[in-house]
Automatic annotation (TrEMBL):
Domain HTH lysR-type residue range list: 2-59
Family annotation (PROSITE patterns): HTH_LYSR (PS50931)
Stated name of the protein: LysR family transcriptional regulator
UniProt source species: Thalassospira marina
Keywords of this entry: DNA-binding, Transcription, Transcription regulation
Gene3D superfamilies tied to this protein: 3.40.190.290, Periplasmic binding protein-like II, Winged helix-like DNA-binding domain superfamily/Winged helix DNA-binding domain
PANTHER family membership: HTH-TYPE TRANSCRIPTIONAL REGULATOR (PTHR30537), TRANSCRIPTIONAL REGULATORY PROTEIN (PTHR30537:SF3)
Domain of life: Bacteria
Keyword DNA-binding: yes
Length: 297
C-alpha cells in the first residue's frame, strides 16, 4: 500500500525539480526528502527520478505515478478543507500571504491590531512576491493586487477591495533643484523586472536616457528619497511619504485591484472569517489613499 506521506515528498520533488527546493517547501531537511523518496521507490520496486546535473527528472515509472499522486493530494486537501471549515475556534494558525509593499506600507498596522484583538490566533505573515498555493494549504488567505479579474483561479473565493492607483514620484528637494535650474535631466529609478515604463516621457520634467535599476521596492524608495531621480509607485506609498511628491504633469495609472482570496471550506473557519471581515473594513477605509484621491494633486 502506498503511504501518502511518501507520495507528498515525491510530488514536491516532481513539482519543484530538485530535492533542495522540495525540502524548503515542506520545511524539512534535505535528507528527509531523500529518505522518503527512497522508501517510495523501494515499496513500488521502481526508480521514480533520474538524477541529472540540471535537477531531478521523472522516469517513465515516475510519470505513471504522478497522476495518482496528484489525485491523492487533491483528496487529502479536500478532506483537510472540510475539517478546517468546521473549526469555529478563535485560536490556531492563520497564514496570510501578500506582496511586501502592501505588508510594509499599508497593512502591517492592521495586522498588529488584529493580533492584539485575538491573541490566541498565531499569525504568520508571508510577505513575498511569488504566489503561494492556497489549494495546497500553504496559506489560508492571500491578499493580491490583481490586474485582470479573469486571471483569478476559479477554485478560490474572492472578496474585491479598492482599486490601486499609481503615480510618478520625485523627492521634494530634487524637484526644487530642477525648478531652480540646477538640474537639467532626471533619471528613472526602476525595479529590474519592470524596466522603464512605456509612458516614461510623461510629465513636465525632462528625463535622462540612463536608468538606475534596483531589485526591490525598498531599495527603489531609498534611492528616490535620496534625490537620485523619479520612480513609479503605488499612491499608498508615494502620497504617504512626506519626502516625496508627484511629478508635475504626470498622470495616475491603475496598478490593479486588491483582492482577499480564500479557498474552499477553509474560508468558513471562524478565524479566517474574522480576519477577512476585519481587513475588508480596513481596506474600505484606505480607499482614498489606494486610489490616489487622499491628497490634492
Amino acid at each position: 500500500m502506498i503511504d501518502w506521506d511518501d507520495v507528498r515528498y515525491f510530488l514536491a520533488v516532481a513539482q519543484c525539480g530538485s530535492v533542495r527546493a522540495a525540502a524548503e517547501r515542506l520545511k524539512v531537511n534535505h535528507s528527509t526528502v531523500l529518505r522518503r523518496i527512497s522508501q517510495l521507490e523501494t515499496r513500488l520496486g521502481a526508480q521514480m527520478f533520474e538524477r541529472l546535473p540540471s535537477g531531478y527528472q521523472l522516469t517513465d515509472a515516475g510519470e505513471d505515478i504522478l497522476l495518482l499522486a496528484a489525485q491523492m493530494e487533491a483528496t487529502s486537501n479536500a478532506q483537510e478543507s472540510r475539517v478546517s471549515g468546521r473549526d469555529q475556534s478563535v485560536r490556531g494558525l492563520l497564514r496570510i500571504t501578500l506582496p511586501p509593499p502592501v505588508a510594509t506600507y499599508l497593512l502591517m498596522p492592521a495586522f498588529v491590531e488584529f493580533a492584539r484583538l485575538y491573541p490566541d490566533i498565531e499569525m504568520e505573515v508571508m510577505s513575498r512576491d511569488d504566489p503561494v498555493n492556497l489549494t495546497n494549504r500553504e496559506a489560508e488567505i492571500a491578499i493580491r493586487v490583481v490586474y485582470n479579474r479573469e486571471n483569478l483561479p476559479l477554485n478560490l473565493h474572492g472578496l474585491k477591495g479598492p482599486d490601486v492607483m499609481g503615480g510618478v514620484y520625485i523627492a521634494r528637494d530634487l524637484l526644487g533643484d530642477w525648478q531652480a535650474g540646477s538640474v537639467s535631466k532626471v533619471r528613472w529609478i526602476v525595479k529590474k523586472r519592470n524596466g522603464v515604463p512605456d509612458w516614461a516621457r510623461e510629465g513636465d520634467i525632462p528625463f535622462a536616457d540612463v536608468p538606475f535599476v534596483t531589485t526591490d521596492t525598498e531599495a527603489q524608495i531609498i534611492a528616490l528619497r535620496q534625490g537620485l531621480g523619479v520612480a513609479s509607485l503605488p499612491c499608498f506609498i508615494g502620497d504617504a511619504d512626506p519626502a516625496l511628491i508627484r511629478v508635475p504633469g504626470s498622470l495616475l495609472r491603475q496598478h490593479g485591484t486588491l483582492w482577499l482570496l480564500t479557498q474552499g471550506e477553509t474560508r468558513k473557519t471562524k478565524r479566517v472569517r474574522l480576519f477577512t471581515e476585519f481587513i475588508a473594513q480596513k481596506l474600505a477605509g484606505y480607499e482614498a489613499l489606494l486610489n490616489g484621491t487622499s491628497i490634492v494633486p
